[in-house]
Amino acid sequence: MEYNYDVAVLGGGPAGIAAAISAGRNGARTVLVERYGFLGGMSTIASVYPWMTFHSAAGDQVIRGVAQEIVDRLMALGASPGHVRDTIGFVHTLTPYHPEVYKVLAYDMLQEAGVEVVLHSTVMDVVTEDNCVKRVTLQHKGGISQLQAKVYVDATGDGDIAYMAGAPWEQGNEKRKVQPMTMKFRMRGVDLAQVKQYMQQHPEEFYEKSLIAELDHLPLSGVMGFYKHWKEAGLPIERDGLLFFAGPNEDEVLVNVSRVSGLDPTNIADLSKAEIEGRRQVLLLAAFFKTKIPGFEKASVSAVGTQIGVRETRRIIGHYVLNGEDVLDGRRFSDVIARSGYPIDIHNPEGKGVTANFIKEGGAYDIPYRSIVPLQIANLLLAGRCISTTHEAQATTRLTPSCMALGQAAGTAAALAFLHQCNAVDVPIEQLQARLLADHAELGL
């Protein structure tokens, strides 16, 4: 079997979904390839929930476009309350959503954009000629297929396509250590009113920025703390406390506490070990919540991630490497194609703790087009957590709303590269920005 398209998007996560929708809407015959039997990437495969954040710390919405359209349509389906205040106080808002509805909505939006979706297919080889991706080989139940396109978008998260094509890349910190992996899980039967009451009675046991004083009129969206309970438990998990988020159902929470450190998610032996260790930690944590945390007495595990959640792997080197100073200074770029207000949030690659650094004056930073254009491969664009950044900057660009915005930019740019018959680096930036603005992407131009 052979496939021929104008644009091929590899990876069906939030970045890939937005990229394929945008490429299709901008006139390119587009295919989206995903290795699982459903869409959503880390949002559905690994239960990364909720989406954080569409806003700056000052409360300005800096991500709109396709990402906001997805939220609006989820709200219309009763599958999201929209953007709500983060009661942890780490960011201004977070966005709960129902993952099963998101899976179907994503497919519907792709179909509306004329995108062909190919599931259960894994890229096993990339052939390059004259610094261009000539074709990719897909492996699936029927055997293998050859996929050809004029322009490709790497939305694999791990930069698999760019890596196999020979683009330069980096990984992790100065020791090549990456942020830990987390096996997330859901619990039902939680009495969130009791959790809220305990927080109001013992505010000292929770994250210092928690909006506990405002819980009388705000819905409880997230909790970070129970530090006393966690310390007394002494579980063999390198965390300082508990972190969980409410919803989407009224008696449900998503637990983000497990931590598997010191392993490389691109190494199959390490990844296999992480999957097993992550599930062991889920069982330990579920028993701890049920016996020790107020409001969880009648709770039980209702779902565990299909795979372990991965925060960081390869970063493909592009024409500009976004760095931590760019982020914290809220730097502006003339070739801006996306913005983000999420802080630098580094989970210690080698032990406990999280390093959080916030953008000055509660603002946002620009992501330049050059950071989604890899070196050495002329007809490839990057979308999602594999874009060109440092270890520090990747700790903010990796968040889902940022990945959605990057996907929209990459898909639009891919369509323009096809329409102009030019290399990705030569896409007219003014036209790209005009199309993003026309779709209500907030670039602040």
What layout of secondary structure does this protein have?
Blueprint: E1 2-10, H1 14-25, E2 30-33, H2 42-45, H3 65-76, E3 84-85, E4 93-94, H4 99-112, E5 116-118, E6 122-129, E7 132-140, E8 143-154, H5 160-165, E9 169-171, E10 185-188, H6 192-201, E11 222-225, H7 227-233, E12 242-246, E13 253-255, H8 268-292, E14 300-304, E15 314-316, H9 324-328, E16 336-340, E17 344-347, E18 354-357, E19 365-368, E20 380-382, H10 391-397, H11 400-420, H12 429-438
Record keyword descriptors for this entry.
445 residues; alpha+beta; 7-stranded mixed sheet; 5-stranded antiparallel sheet
Protein architecture, described:
The chain has about 450 residues and is α+β, with helices and mostly antiparallel strands. The chain has helices at about 15-25, 40-45, 65-75, 100-110, 160-165, 190-200, 225-235, 270-290, 325-330, 390-395, 400-420, 430-440; strands at about 1-10, 30-35, 85, 95, 115-120, 120-130, 130-140, 145-155, 170, 185-190, 220-225, 240-245, 255, 300-305, 315, 335-340, 345, 355, 365-370, 380. The strands form six sheets. Strands 1, 2, 5, 6, 7, 8 and 20 form a seven-stranded mixed beta sheet that branches. The chain is globular and about 65 Å long. The model has no long low-confidence stretch (mean pLDDT about 95).
* Helical/strand content category: alpha+beta
**What would you call the shape?**
globular
Low-confidence stretches at least 5 residues in length (pLDDT < 50)?
none
Helix content: 25-40%
- Work out the radius of gyration: 21 Å
Q: Overall mean pLDDT score? A: 96
Give a short synopsis of this structure:
This protein has 445 residues and is an alpha+beta fold. It contains twelve helices and 20 strands.
